[in-house]
Amino acid sequence: MKGMIFTAFLEMVENKFSLNLADEIIEASDLPSGGSYTTVGTYDHNEMIKLVVQLSERTSIPVADLVRTFGEYLFSQLLEMHAYFLEENSSVFEFLQKVDSYIHVEVRKLYPDAELPAFHYETSIPGTLIMTYRSSRPFADLAEGLIIGSINHYGEKIDVKRQDLSDGNATRFELTIVG
């Protein structure tokens, strides 16, 4: 997992909670990296899991909620880095359908060794986008947070239903325009 994700997570913890809490969760997690991350470095995704678990224990906020909230926060960070791309797309559906073909391509340019999730899209139902998220890592909550962040950015009224699929590496998100 790229260091940019870790640095954004720790920044979120500092902003939403405190610098002291960020230091506490790093210390308590016993991380191979020591909790020292560079944006371009690559780190074991299990370090993120340890950090989130420690944050959950200290805040009594469920892990899934923290990861979803981080996804929303991360979207705002990506918005700053790739504002032009978001401006080129006029809707949530248009934006989300280009994640693999644009955003992930740009990420691969910067980080050729990045292991990225994959998305499959279904658009056969008018007003509905079905996204199937596949990843070897357990971060569907993060994907959901990023989706929610994009909905908030575009200001559209969209209902999101989530279904974790039986193979354990896939999650189906059904997004439906409301009204």
Highlighted features:
single chain, alpha+beta, four-stranded antiparallel beta sheet
Briefly summarize what is shown:
The chain has 179 residues and is an alpha+beta fold. The chain has helices at 3-16, 19-29, 45-59, 63-81, 83-88, 92-96, 99-110, 140-154, and strands at residues 118-122, 128-134, 158-164, 170-177.
Describe the structure.
- With 179 residues, the protein is an alpha+beta fold.
- Helix content is 54%, strand content 15%.
- The chain has helices at 3-16, 19-29, 45-59, 63-81, 83-88, 92-96, 99-110, 140-154; strands at 118-122, 128-134, 158-164, 170-177.
- The protein has a four-stranded antiparallel sheet with strand order 1-2-4-3, with helices on one face.
- It is globular, with a radius of gyration of 16 Å.
- The N and C termini lie far apart (38 Å).
Strand elements, count: 4
Name the overall outline: globular
- Proportion of residues in extended strands: 15-25%
Question: Count the helices. How many?
Answer: 8
Largest sheet strand order: 1-2-4-3
Give the C-alpha Rg: 16 Å
* Distance linking N and C termini: 38 Å
Question: What level of helicity do the residues show?
Answer: 40-55%
* Largest sheet, strands/sense/barrel: 4 strands, antiparallel
The oligomeric status of these chains comes to: single chain
Structural class designation: alpha+beta
N-to-C series of helices and strands: HHHHHHHEEHEE
Give the integer mean of the pLDDT values: 91
Low-confidence spans: none
